[in-house]
Description:
Blueprint: E1 14-16, E2 23-25, E3 29-35, E4 39-43, E5 53-56, H1 59-67, H2 70-75, H3 85-106, E6 110-112, H4 114-122, E7 126-131, H5 137-140, E8 152-153, H6 158-165, E9 172-176, H7 179-194
Parallel strand pairs: 7-8
Antiparallel strand pairs: 1-2, 3-4, 3-5, 6-9, 7-9
Helix pairs in contact: 3-6, 3-7
Amino acid sequence: MSRGKPSPAPDAPERRCLATGEVQPKRGLVRFVVGPGDTVYPDIAGKLPGRGMYVAAEREALERAVAKRLFSRGAKRQVTVPEGLVAEVEAALVRRVIDRIALARKAGAAIAGYEKVKEWLDRDRCRILLQASDGSERGKSKLHRPGGRGSFFDILTADELGLSFGRERVIHAALAAGRLAEDFRDDAVRLSGVRLMQGDDGAGKVKKS
């Protein structure tokens, strides 16, 4: 999936990234707060109390913030960064996008299965095409992508996509246009920057497609 910095919407709130120093829309950042024991906690939903610190939703930026102890600088005091914080952020984003798809499914705005997805694509009902990262490339190539920014994601495994639909495994899924799809896209874009995918070069960069 092609990624880029989120384009700012009119009056979209912006924050500065601790790792890069760049100001960008909040939806492209991960919020952190200092909680009990002066420990840093990720706030994926952006609702925890306390002064927020923000890092771009890019694995390299998150790893830099941890390695260079930038959270202490942002908090203006010594704080504890748990081991595996970046992995915790990734896991939280995975749970969030799975929940987003499940919510869309319950609302009738998400379907799974090759034939159903193909029908939605043919009828221009598909706003976002989802395909399992570990699915057959030959099988996945038989479905055309909708086109447009954030219209295709292959950031979940077949098992993870299956969780969204109450199935063991899902290879192909689709979301209809609407607010649920847009909310999913924002979180999916963040996950695509944080998650290590098959073929990653080991330098904190996610494979782009």
